[in-house]
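Support request, please re-run this one:
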Amino acid sequence: MRLLKALVVGLLLIVGGGVVGGGAAEAVPQVRESALRADPSLVLRWAPIHHQDVDAHGRHSAGGRADKVTRVDFDGNWDARDNWEHAGDFPAAAYAYASVVQTRTHWFLTYLFFHSRDWTNRPFFDSEHENDAEGVLLVVARDGTRYGELRAAVTVAHADFFSYTPAGSPWSGGRETIDGILAMQRSTRDGLLHPVTAQEAHGHGLKAYRGRSGGVVYYPAEVAEMPRGAHDPDVGYALLDIFAPGGLWQRRGDPALFAAPGTFAGDAPRFGRGACGHGTFRCTTNSAHAPWGWDDHDDTPGRGEIATDPAKVAAEYFTIPEPFAREYTANGYTPGPAQAPIAVAHSPGAQ
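Re-run finished. Output below.
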């Protein structure tokens, strides 16, 4: 098993401003924050234990690699239009992407799980497309402890968002109903309780774990590991900073990687039995999205706001009975004087 070095996301604490709670403005004690940097393990602390169903037998499964999470440049380049063709040629080292946005009262942690293919084993009924990227937003209350307290999650499953709260959370449904309980499980790596998420095989819709898994179980770790086949109960996945120099956000204008803002490039080559769409209903183009392109088809928040304005999404989806600031003190998606992208250290091979 090959181990690959990972990045850990750093976060700079800055003083915040405007406040609302439960949809209405309320006063919050003005607590002056220290100039200390947040613990860089914050994102690792709350990263999900992630169940991934794997189908290794379908014609377009790439031997199961199409269902294994990995990095966008798993094949050594940033051309998103050759990922379908390369899916079976390169090992699927386990990575996820993460970003941190913060207000004075909460952290908003976004995790993206990438797959080289969205594929089907149902000929003539389902479509396929090159690249797939779905994920989850976690909201953590900054309660004065090192890592805060997890309050809620919103997951991305295709064109729908699903909302969850862990047991004991004071948050409840808002304009959207709560879809279920966010299970928590103690990690084999750090011994701490982590939220548990799951993705289906083929289309990779992401929801809270419901107690069933038929593939690989990924645990947040400091190094990326390789799954041992289609069924592996303990694989470490490493985190890559979305805002890292040379990373996804910095490359958002690269036409080889993105066909449009927030939309990964993906073509529909039709040659051979392994081609996208061969033997299926069709192969769609440019169909996978980065977090700033995620969108629920029938809710109020706009496209990408689950990442770029997560406080708005949280305020829409949940009733929040605690101080809840809406002005960002760090937001790399909308940089300003107090919101510049967060710089992190790099390790060799993580470009």
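The chain has a mean pLDDT of 81. Helices lie at 42-46, 83-86, 305-308, 310-317.
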